[in-house]
Amino acid sequence: MQPTTLEATARAVADGAVIELRGEIDGLARDALASAYDAAAGPGSLLLDFSQVDYINSTGIALIVGLLARARSDQRPVSARGLTEHYREIFEITRLSDFMTILAG
Amino acid sequence: MFDAVQQSALRDAVPIDIAPNDPLVAYLESAAGAVELAALDLESPALEELRSSGITLVVPLVSNGELIGLLHVGRRRSDQDYSADDRRLLETLAAQAAPAVRVGQLVREQQIEIQARGRLEQELAVAQLIQQNFLPKELPQLAGWQVAAYYGPARTVGGDFYDFIELPDGRYGLVVGDVTDKGIPAAMVMAATRSVLRASAQRLQEPGVVLARVNDSLCPDIPENMFVTCFYGVLDPATGHLRYANAGHNLPLVRSGSESSELRATGMPLGLMPGMNYEERETTIAPDATVLLYSDGLVEAHDPEREMFGTARAVEVLAADREAEPLIGDLLGALEHFGAGHQEQEDDITLVVIQRREAASSALADFKLDSAPGNEREAMRRVGAALDSSGLTPARLERLQTAVAEATMNAMEHGNGYAADRPVRVIVSATELEVVVQIVDHGGDHEIRAAATPDIEAKLAGLQSPRGWGLFLIEKMVDRVDQRTAGSLHTVELAMRLKGGDDATDDA
Questions:
Q1: Helix B470-477 / helix A85-93 crossing angle, nearest 10 deg
Q2: What is the ipTM of this complex?
């Protein structure tokens, strides 16, 4: 049982790129996240849209940390939207929220 | 003591004090009737004084063979000597007056005594009032615990006290103390100690620090030669964890299984000198264990042969393993049987029994999952379903589910190595106090690594693996995490409080 757990699609917007995430961010999301980041290449800010995400586990958090690290070395500011109350709290507890702008809704 | 009954003819007569050891007393006690003072030859100051007051004749007033006073007469107006008739008349008068004088004396003595006792009784009543006003009106209701308390004042009212202090996070402060001295002063010091203790307990966490604060507050004002012994413990009813300190009070007794022990921590009584430190100890009260807090009125009660009741007898009573309320009855019964009941109770007796009675746990789910990636979602789903109507708020259930997912992943990966023949077992249960999820794997022979706090800056800088969030998240998500191993089985226990926890953790 190894279904694809995450769909991640990148699209360019005026000042950068949006990565729309759909599904679960766990260990199986590694490749999907990596290729979405590659697809969102280019200068400008990066917006992660979590509104279709229903599960993030500790491995998923590690992947987000990895993505943040890449964006950092590319000097791209990262923001996030669509987090549920629960995951927003987890982003705060893990201090992910100190390194990305958490947008409401 | 004599009442000198003066004849009215002696104007401006002053009362004459006759010392009990004056030879005149002995003489008059054995005299048959009226005595002419002129005829006496005694080395007696009283005799001198009587003579110089113009008294010539005295008639002893005797009641029940006891000399209770004298009838004195001066010279006859005619200046003639008293005749035999006169003397008989005086003797008859003395014989009739003596019982009446005695009754008067007794009434007066009793009035004085009643007055004195009235003051004492009134003082005792006030002391008792203060005392009882400052004892808890009701016992705390702790799920999974039985609590009983008894306070029996001595007639003279000592300074015993006990208290239960409700603290944040559902914890409880337990207090038993004893002010040296009795009566109103002791009751006042007791009231002051209790108030300061209550205030400090709300502000300060550590029992040793609380006692140190109370000591410093009491020292400047406490009357000389008075001090307070006091045991203070902070109990977490959910876990049985007890942190305590002791300012020279009797050591509480603990009975657990067939073992008896004392809660020992050292510290000086309160109010002796400022700046004292109080040793702090901790223990976990096991399920079914009984703790007895008491005052010296129990163990220092004497039998008629002056033998003390002692802690050994108290331990014997505890060993019968009775419920809290009957246990207090048993202790008082043992005290009575010991013989302390044959005499007046010497000191206040305070007994507080705290008994841990495992809260009935109901099983809500028990299932096994294959160790395969992604199956933690199934664990989350089934735990969520089992706890749907448990009373956990949706937000807290979600936190517990996240912890369950992380613990299940750890169990599948690190405990079972994703081996097909090693499933993870998940057991969901609830008590009155909390919901508990146990996650059991086969990694009992592995060492459990302590969770390092992940450092996101080091991770972003590539100095630390981006991973390592699992245990950190588990600990942040739930109210309690316990791990244990039994043989090859390793269990992680995750618990969420059902009461009192919401505000404490949701705001964290």
A1: 120
A2: 0.91
Pairwise CA distance, residues B373 & B46, whole Å: 115
Q: What residue has token string 């009741």?
A: B309
Identity of the residue in A27, A90, A95 whose CB atom sits nearest the CB atom of B473 = A90
B-chain residues near A55 (CB < 8 A): 377, 405
Distance CA B335, CA B299 (A): 9
Report yes or no: B473 at the A interface, CB cutoff 8 Å: yes
| CATH, domain B3-109, list 3.10.290.10, 3.40.980.10, 3.20.20.60, 3.30.450.40 | 3.30.450.40
CA pair distance A87, B174, nearest whole angstrom: 40
Here the contacts of B457-463 (C-beta below 8 Å, separation 24 or greater) are: B459/A65, B459/A69, B460/A65, B460/A68, B460/A69, B460/A72, B460/A99, B461/A69, B462/A69
Which chain B residues touch A58 with a CB distance below 8 Å? Answer: 406, 409, 467, 469-470, 472-473
Single-letter amino acid code for the residue at B296: D
What are the residue boundaries of the structural domains of chain B, listed by start? 3-109, 134-356, 362-506
Q: Which of B395, B462, B467 sits opposite A59 (nearest CB)?
A: B467
Task: Supply the mean pLDDT for chain B.
Answer: 86
Please check whether the two domains, B134-356 and B362-506, share a CATH topology.
no
* Chain A: closest CA distance from residue B191 (Å): 45
- pTM of the predicted protein model: 0.51
Confidence of residue B250 (pLDDT cuts 50, 70, 90): very high
| Distance to chain B for A20, nearest Cα, Å | 22
Q: How open is the CA angle B16-B20-B21, to the nearest 5 degrees?
A: 115
Task: Report d(CA B328, CA B293) in Å as an integer.
Answer: 11
**Other Cβ atoms within 10 Å of B287 Cβ, number:** 12
Superfamily per CATH, domain B362-506: Histidine kinase-like ATPase, C-terminal domain (3.30.565.10)
Cα separation of B11 and B433, whole Å? 90
Architecture of domain B134-356: 4-Layer Sandwich (3.60)
Is A24 within 8 Å of B456 when comparing Cβ atoms? no
* CATH superfamily, region A6-102: STAS domain (3.30.750.24)
Q: For residue range B214-232, list pLDDT tens digits in order.
A: 999 999 989 888 999 999 9
